[in-house]
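Hi everyone,

Forwarding the result from last night's run.
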Amino acid sequence: MNIGSGRPGPRKGAHILLVDRCLAPEVGYEISKRDRLHGIPLRDHYGDDHAQRLEDTTFLAEAGRRGWGVLTQNPRMWQVPQERSCIIENRTRVFSLDDSNASKTLKGLVLGRHLLSIRRRLLRPEPCFWQAPVSHHASAPSR
């Protein structure tokens, strides 16, 4: 596994989340600061050039085979028949933010709010496609 230059590998017992290219690599780095989680951006795992051309089914299948989760902001992934089949067949656990247009701050807040649930869901072997509702939080009135 290529974990990028100078980055430590996952701690013993850490759950690994492969971070889709549609999210900034820093998301993976920040996740790694959390207890029992380790984020690996696609570009660090596959190399930048290869990650950009990579079919979603390739990394979904690998993540499932390795028992890793996938973090994305592509809620349509479940609606694409070959990607849905790949998730089910490889028992991949996918966690998606549902609004790619939300600000980085809002995405970070929503992701932080759901990290415990994500970590718990990673303990279960069944495949899943779980959406964190960013758009719900965006419409909440400010105080």
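Residues 19-134 form one domain.

Cheers,
N.
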